[in-house]
Hints:
131 residues, elongated
Amino acid sequence: IQAKFFSFTMDSIQKLFFGNEVDTMADGKTDPYATAFDNAHRYMLKCVLKTVILQVLTVTLLPWPFGTLQVGGNAANGLIMATYLHFDQDYQGFKKNVAYLHKLTEEYIRKIRKDPSMETRKDMIANFLNS
């Protein structure tokens, strides 16, 4: 049932944001955008759960540039965390999927901009571009 909820959510996002009718719930096909989103989320969770102790240690015990620099609510990874993430397969998988999502989103936006009926479209991207 979780797969059906995910399909419904991603079908809705595609329709509302980009005006795309993917309908993965009806035909059982996979959508590349949904797959990349799911993979990015999975890799991010695995990476965070694996590195939480290292993150805490680099924030509390190591000075910058080795440890994490906390400024307000923002954090900049120090050398130890950056090196770890550079070689971590889950982090690399996360970055790869996020890059693919950016690429697909840019393609969708280019397609919407070229659409002659953009003025009458009701999706969120077209509404934003028309404002």
